[in-house]
Amino acid sequence: MKIRNILIGGVGVMALTTACSDYLEVDAPSKYTNEFIYTSASEASTALNGVYANTLKDQTFGRYLYDDLLLNSDVDFKANSNETSQINSPVRFDCTSASGTVESVWNALYAGVESANEFIYNMENSPIYNEENTDYADLTQMVGEAKVMRAM
Fold first, then answer.
1. What one-character DSSP code corresponds to residue 70?
2. Most CB within 10 Å of its CB: which of 1, 37, 47, 105?
3. What sign does the CA torsion over 133, 139, 140, 143 have?
4. Tens digits of residue pLDDT in 24-38
């Protein structure tokens, strides 16, 4: 009885491993290139969402930019018992190269600028970005939004 179950299980495993060898494609599809993304307004809108996503990261407007770096007005307060310069130095006007928050915010903000620049360049050089296209107003709106995200 035990040998029969082992034999049936072994045959089942062999059948599964040999049956799926042609099913799995291991090469990544090359569908999502700039030539594909910037040939329709819907795909360009998805790319613009990626520019917006950079502003929602924890290192930018999602948390650190306002929560840790802009607490120096007369209406802001943050209680923190840890006085090490690595954690709350921007709040105490004591930014040094040891402040990891400042470096991570700086890097994330410029990653957002780079993302917006890539979107603007690729959109303005795409074949659909012309006045004859029916979606031209939407496309110019997207480029304008990316320019605002870059300026922020």
1. S
2. 105
3. negative
4. 666 665 656 777 778
